[in-house]
Design brief:
- By secondary structure, this protein is an alpha+beta fold.
- Helix content is 21%, strand content 53%.
- It contains one helix and three strands.
- It has one helix at 22-36; strands at residues 9-18, 40-53, 56-69.
- Strands 1-3-2 form a three-stranded antiparallel β-sheet, with helices on one face.
- The longest helix has 15 residues, at 22-36.
- It is elongated.
């Protein structure tokens, strides 16, 4: 019987913001998270919000769950 290594993943919730767009907020969040954590595998966008200033959208905010593989 062959024993296969076990892969353990973890999910962490993060929030990111951008003055440009939701997509830019996602890119910024994943890029920043990847500087701290290795082996990022994916992200699930949990929530999208905007900040409004003087009747205009001034910031796009996303809350996401980022999954990554733990070292074994």
């Amino acid at each position: 019987m062959e024993i296969r290594p076990v892969t353990i993943a973890r999910t962490t919730e993060i929030t990111s913001a951008s003055e440009k767009s939701f997509e830019d907020a996602i890119q910024r969040g994943v890029k920043r998270f990847s500087k701290t954590i290795e082996k990022v595998e994916g992200a699930w966008i949990k929530e999208q919000k905007v900040k409004v200033t003087d009747g205009e959208v001034s910031e796009y905010r996303v809350t996401m769950k980022v999954s990554f593989i733990l070292k074994g």
